[in-house]
Specification:
heterotrimer; A alpha/beta; B alpha+beta; C alpha/beta; A: alpha/beta; Beta Polymerase, domain 2; 4 helices; about 25% strand; B: alpha+beta; Cytochrome-c3 Hydrogenase, chain B; 2 domains; 3-stranded antiparallel sheet; disordered N terminus
């Protein structure tokens, strides 16, 4: 497979103004990623899938990440036809509160369907263009996005025989409440 | 906008399931199959809309076993998540451990000694064998065979679980692989016991083949049912025996060559007709290939340490970065994506679940089939809910 | 009131069999407990292994696993009960016909197990339904499940048919159905059933001790 710089050059040659930047990966795995701007992402995705030299026709994994200032979706692409990979592409939302839309890559790779629903359920990124965006793991009336770092768990009293510290405090509060 | 041309132009929406029109009059019958159902392999629900016996619409519903494994891992050290990976695909806990260890080794650049690699291969292929045997057993049970093939499969499984227990201490939740090798070395007596068990496995595979493959009922019910086209399979991220039964030659053991798999001589069986019978046959043939690998590995295993001497066991803090490591688990491609921020806990820990992604195409395979065949198609996908919901 | 054991054996040698109605009734019930096919997670695989050829559970009377709750006597809750699944579990328990028993198999069914810190994990099925036997383990070995089965059989043997401690199905006033929790916006509502799960509050080191059933609203 081409190096990450060559892929970036190929994308920018095919789709001018695509807004692609390289995100280096300091670990020994050497899996560097490309950050895409959301507005041209679907075209870039189609190019990556249909290009004869890259032929990245297999989307392996879609991950949601919760950074302190925004949310991110990471896609791992492989090629079944040419047996190479992975290429990692990422997209960031603007912030974590109200501007959380990203374009959905489900029309390009069907395997994103359930995984993007899961990211919507657990992180709260809204994927525009997804055919069926609803919660997948939690029940439909659930209101929070549990995988976010600022999620507060419900106060489920846990009985422990030798309670101390946090659990002791909560147990005492429950006792007083009753 | 110059986008590179592909020879086969795909129209928009080609990878969506077709919209079926009911043939009869009146309303559709909506049936919720599950979450408590004898054939749903666990707590899984399918909302099926039927026109008579034909399936018009099928929506899977999961989450009944969502145990927030990924969030737990963010609060635990890297090694602390290893027992939890056992409980992902709970029938094959060793391959789950291996995938996680591989991902962390990619993140840190650790090396694994040779004996540990051989042990990993031996245990991984034993796991694959008993998983495929159980999967065939469950599939035939749903066809109405009332548990007899499952009894045979579990008889072999118990022998393999005895080996696991002798080596790792537990039958199912083994917690055996470590970052940089394995936890405990295998004694010569264990290797002899393993060779004895492996010597009995070809006879079992032959027995299953003789009893099941030519069976009229099996052939009539599974041939031509639940067809999955290869281009849809690749686009939908399907992996494992399901992908190979659709004729796509993609086995991560051959493609990535992780561990020492490129030393072993084994073939990758592929399917021609892309139906449920092919998936059953692929699993049976992969059982035979596993036996081949096991015989070679048990012959060639060298002496040596099973843990990288330079591996840091306490205070394990990988440098910041990320890594995605994947293996060919018995159900498909099991991958772990880890983002490290330099601390003792992972910043983001993600499991790529093969069972969940293989279910993407359940609707496509089941549309237009009879509701009784939906159970078979679902059984041929071979899922485990611990992995789907994590 | 029973005949003394030595006399029983003597009479038995003569071909006369003496027993009480209670013993006979309980003997019939304990030797034909039919479990419901209800596996949730990993413990379900050990439950299936218990019914397979090596650790055959059918020897003990669990001849068939009935898929329908109406035809089952025993619900072996094997695996983690999540909050999404908990209403279904309680509903299934309500649909079982009396006499019915529950075995909580594995650490997850007893108290949430290794997944205790979970937003979707119910910390023990005994928050909503009464449990008769708890088996610790993750997963418990098939022998442990057989031991639990035998414990349940001993419990049934010890049930008296009249008087205060009689089982639920012989007591017209007893409550056999329990309210089904509803999934709310953040958690299940109610979070537990106080009639079934009295919160025991023996908090060490704080001087707080609460004897008896814990839901004391004074």
């Amino acid at each position: 497979m081409k190096t990450i710089e060559e892929i970036k050059a190929a994308i920018e040659a095919a789709i001018p103004g695509a807004g692609v930047e390289i995100v280096p990966n300091p670990s020994p795995s050497g899996q560097h990623s490309l950050r895409l701007a959301p507005d041209h992402a679907v075209e870039v995705a189609k190019f990556l899938r249909d290009d004869a030299e890259l032929a990245l026709d297999f989307l392996s994994n879609v991950t949601g990440v919760d950074w302190p200032d925004c949310l991110e979706a990471v896609y791992h692409l492989y090629s079944v036809a040419l047996k190479h990979g992975p290429l990692v592409i990422r997209m960031r939302t603007v912030n974590r509160t109200d501007q959380v839309e990203l374009p959905s890559l489900t029309p390009v790779w069907r395997s994103a369907e359930f995984q993007e629903r899961e990211i919507f359920d657990l992180f709260g990124i809204v994927f525009a263009g997804h055919p069926d965006l609803r919660r997948i793991l939690m029940w439909d009336d659930f209101k929070d996005h549990p995988m976010r770092r600022d999620y507060v768990e419900p106060d489920d009293f846990e009985y422990e025989p030798t309670a101390h510290d946090e659990v002791l405090k909560r147990a005492q509060e429950h006792r007083n409440r009753e | 906008m110059a986008v590179a041309d592909n020879k086969t132009e795909k129209p928009d929406g080609w990878n969506r399931p077709p919209v079926m029109e009911p043939e009869g009059e009146g309303e559709l019958l909506e049936v919720a199959m599950g979450p408590h159902h004898p054939s749903t392999h666990g707590v899984f629900r399918m909302d099926v809309a039927l026109d008579g016996e034909r399936v018009i619409r099928l929506k899977p519903v999961f989450g009944y076993l969502h145990r927030n494994h990924e969030k737990l891992a963010e609060g635990m050290s890297y090694l602390g998540s290893m027992p939890f990976t056992d409980r992902l695909d709970y029938i094959c806990s060793l391959t789950n451990n291996w995938a996680y260890a591989l991902a962390v080794e990619k993140l840190t650049g650790q090396e694994v000694p040779e004996r540990a690699e051989y042990l990993r291969v031996i245990l991984g292929e034993l796991t694959r064998f008993q998983n495929h045997a159980s999967s065939i057993g469950f599939l035939i049970q749903e066809m109405g065979a009332s548990g007899t093939p499952l009894m045979y499969a579990f008889r072999e499984r118990e022998k393999i679980l005895d080996l696991f227990e002798a080596l790792t201490g537990a039958r199912m939740m083994v917690n055996y692989m470590r970052f940089g090798g394995c936890r405990v070395d295998a004694s010569a007596a264990w290797l002899d016991a393993a060779r004895k068990v492996v010597a009995g496995l070809p006879g079992f595979a032959d027995e299953m083949d003789r009893l099941l493959s030519g069976n009229e009922i099996l052939m009539a019910r599974t041939q031509g049912v639940g067809i999955l086209r290869p281009e849809l399979a690749v686009n939908a991220g399907v992996t494992g025996p399901m992908l190979r039964a659709s004729g796509v030659n993609y086995d991560i053991r051959k493609v990535d060559g992780y561990g020492i798999y490129n030393r072993f001589n084994f073939r990758v069986p592929l399917g021609d007709h892309w139906d449920v019978y092919d998936r059953y046959m692929i699993r049976l043939l992969e059982m035979r290939e596993s036996i081949k690998i096991l015989e070679q590995a048990l012959k060639d295993i060298p002496a040596g340490p099973v843990m990288d001497p330079k591996a840091k066991l306490r205070g394990f803090r990988p440098k910041p970065g990320e890594a995605y490591g994947r293996i060919e688990a018995p159900k498909g491609e099991l991958g772990f994506y880890l983002i490290s921020d330099g601390g003792p806990n992972p910043y983001r820990y993600r499991v790529r679940p093969p069972s969940l992604i293989n279910l993407t195409v359940l609707e496509d395979m089941a549309l237009g089939e009879n509701v009784a065949d939906v159970v078979l198609i679902f059984g041929s996908v071979d899922i485990v809910l611990g992995e789907v919901d994590r | 009131m029973a005949v003394e054991a030595g006399l029983k054996i003597e009479l038995g040698k003569q071909g006369v069999f003496v027993t009480t109605l209670e013993e006979l009734y309980n003997w019939g019930r304990r030797n034909s407990i039919w479990p419901m096919q209800f596996g949730l997670a990993c413990c379900a695989i050990e439950m299936i292994a218990t019914t397979m050829a090596r650790y055959d559970l059918a020897r003990f009377g669990a001849e068939v696993f009935r898929p329908s709750p109406r035809q089952a006597d025993l619900m072996i809750v094997s695996g983690t009960v999540t909050k999404k699944m908990a209403p279904q579990v309680v509903r299934l328990y309500n649909q079982m016909a009396e006499p019915k028993y529950v075995i909580a198999m594995g650490a997850c069914a007893i108290s949430g197990g290794p997944f205790k810190q979970g937003y979707n994990v119910l910390k023990g099925i005994d928050r909503y339904i009464p449990v008769d036997v708890h088996i610790p383990g993750c997963p418990p070995r098939p022998e442990a499940l057989i031991q639990a089965f035998m414990t349940l059989q001993k419990k049934i043997d010890g049930q008296h048919l009249t008087g205060e401690g009689r089982p639920r199905h012989l007591d017209a006033q007893a409550q056999g159905e329990f309210p089904v929790p509803v999934p709310g916006e953040h958690d299940l509502e109610p979070a537990s059933n106080p009639g079934v799960w009295p919160v025991p509050l023996v908090i060490q080191g704080s001087g707080i001790r609460d004897q008896g059933s814990g839901n004391s609203k004074s």
